[in-house]
Amino acid sequence: MNIYQHFRDEILSIVDELASQNVIPAGMDTGRITVEPPREAGHGDMATNAAMVLSKAAGMKPRDLAAVLSERLNTIQWVHETEIAGPGFINLRLESPYWHQRLEEILQNGTAFGDSTLGRGETVNVEYVSANPTGPLHVAHARGAVVGDVLASLLEKAGYAVTREYYVNDAGAQVDILARSAYLRYREALGEKIKEIPKGLYPGEYLIPVGEALAEKYGDQWLGADEEAWLADIRSFAAILMMDEVREDLKSLGIDFDVFSSEKTLVEKGAVEGVLEQLEKMDLIYTGVLEPPKGKIPDDWEPRPQTLFRASQFGDEVDRALKKSDGTWTYFATDMAYHLDKFQRGFKSMINVWGADHGGYVKRMKAAVGAVTGGEGELDVKICQMVHLKKGGEALRMSKRAGTFVTLSDLIGEVGRDVVRFMMLTRKNDSQMEFDLDKALEQSRDNPVFYVHYAHARCRSVLRNAATEWGDDTISPSALAAADLSLLTDPSELDLIKVMAAWPRMVENAAEAHEPHRIAYYLNELATLFHALWNKGNDDARLRFIITGEPALTIARLALVQGVATVIVSGLQVIGVSPVEEL
RNA sequence: GCGCCCGUAGCUCAGUCGGAUAGAGCGCAAGAUUCCUAAUCUUGAGGUCACAGGUUCGAAUCCUGUCGGGCGCGCCA
Description:
Radius of gyration: 29 Å
Mean pLDDT: 91
Number of domains: 4
CATH superfamily of the largest domain: HUPs
């Protein structure tokens, strides 16, 4: 349950009630009323801006209106006291039993705590990774993979019906290059000496086994043959092998897609012609000549009539080309068809997770979605900025051309899957990130993965110790459920419960904002509070979890510890990281 | 030249679709361990939220401009 939502509803009914009693006008816009945790703990448990938001429409000064509202709020169940502060905030302080109930709720729900019905089962398509099937995944893909996957999990937890989708670009020029590169390796496998991989082809050694496999399957039949004889076969052969590798890499990151959509299939079934026909009917296509980009004119620029989409009618800067000079579709044209296809499969809400190099593509894609769905489809694009790897205090420079990039599987081999997943969420997706391989393995406060794991391990440790000393029954779910939680009276214990109680709201807000990194930050905060409480037990033995000779108090505190562990696990599940029992 | 993203403490970064005295970690200074994991914690110093205007009860947040960094800029994806 989102507790802030609960009290917001209470305020709305108070507003209605006051309106029906003609104390304030009826029919005011209450949409901007919020109930939030105040930034400062000293301001109570919750604060509402209701009086300030409504004051104008009510024709009252904010603080006067606040006085009227707070009088009624005082009578609501669980409200301990209210206070009018600053320009007209109403601060609420809640009674301790309310917080004890929240802990009980956590214990009853287990890791399902935080599940929300916000999404009302609406479908959302999250498309991520979508790397060309031309080589293994590397570090840049890892960030998008994690961001997309965790965003999908987050939306699921918030009550959406999520489809995880990978778009396989198996039709464009990139896979032709793959095929030519593989052909070289094929000749090599048959004994030819290849001195140097020509510029423009993929030099990576990962294609050597592909060449060998080709040689084994097809023998020498293509030696000396024209490209048109072998291109199609090798292209699909190599692309399939590459996708197998991609799937392996994703699996090792714990990522499993629901749908792999093939660009080639889409093109072959005429989807591009379909979407263009539709656009033609809407008069959104014409033949024209684009202006060269100002300030920077490409060397080989020449004005040329092209088939263009009126993207500028939908918020883009210029109209965009749909056909290449060789008559084939641009990537954009097939991507339009692809997004219409998604929409027709029932996804009004689409999220794409892209790398930084696609930033300039966002506007036209949004324009395209707006056009082909008649404004009904909604596209959000999360751009993941670059990841700079660091090791031994030095930057690891990567170059795809030189073949010196660090692969995803290298990275996982170096630090492990869970660390990769968590670390990728320690920055907003649109901020650049430095990934320090040494720090990611460090067991210190510096390393948020460790820090959260440590908090959970400490929880488990206390529970194990209690079981050893008092018997397994002490920590059984039924024993903890029967605990007298009213014995939890210390402010730091209640503070901890309050942060746990904020978890459902965190899930909803992060899901609505499409910001998975907030989960990692929340877990860090929860861990901080728990570590702090733990250390209070060092200063004051009365605050330790296990108090010999006081079973009731101990069980209440074990319930608290179990609650912390539960919420941490609930969060780690969203991130896709396994909790550890001990370190 | 144009578009998008970013600019917050010495460093790395949060900051809840406009809220109260702008936060955290690292680093720095000083402390806590016969006791549930000190792999942790506590306290302190540290700020013109890049800069200049504007919008309003209120701006780090929204708008305009300037400066600085990143990404991209017809027939690559």
